[in-house]
Amino acid sequence: MLLQICDILPRERPGVLACCNPIPPLVRQYLNEIHTIIMKAREAPLTKVHNFEKEWVYCFLHFCWSQDI
Predict the structure, then answer these.
(1) 1, 19 contact by CB (below 8 A)
(2) CA of 33: how far to CAs of 17, 28, 50, 52, in Å?
(3) Dihedral angle over CA of 52, 53, 55, 60, nearest 10
(4) Which domains does the chain have, with CATH numbers?
(5) What is the rounded end-to-end Cα distance, in angstroms, of the chain?
(6) Residue 68 CB-half CA count within 13 A
(7) Tell me, what DSSP letter sits at residue 48?
(8) Residue 12 and residue 39 in contact, taking contact as beta carbons nearer than 8 Å
(9) At 38, is the secondary structure helix, strand, or coil?
(10) What is the Cα–Cα distance from 52 to 56, expressed in whole angstroms?
């Protein structure tokens, strides 16, 4: 349910409820707050996530190449 809300990021309050089946009482109780958080998330700019795995592989391959392994 939470992953579905995060994936869809519904624009309206009924959309939040549509992601839940059954609808938990706390979701009903805090629907306005949840909707506000979702709207802020929609407005926030996307940021680039650093991919340490790629960097590690690059460093490892560079090391192996420089050592003639």
Answers:
(1) yes
(2) 13, 10, 30, 34
(3) 140
(4) 2-67 (1.10.150.80)
(5) 49
(6) 0
(7) P
(8) no
(9) helix
(10) 6
pLDDT at 19 over 90: yes
Q: What is the pLDDT of residues 26-64, one digit of tens each?
A: 999 999 999 999 999 889 887 766 666 666 666 666 676
Distances, alpha carbon 17 to alpha carbons 5, 38, 41, in Å: 9, 13, 17
Q: Are 11 and 30 in contact (CB under 8 A)?
A: no
Q: Residue 14 corresponds to which tokens in the numbers above? A: 């009924």
DSSP state of 22: S
User: What is the pTM (predicted TM-score) of this model?
Assistant: 0.64
- The secondary structure of residue 21, as a DSSP letter, is S
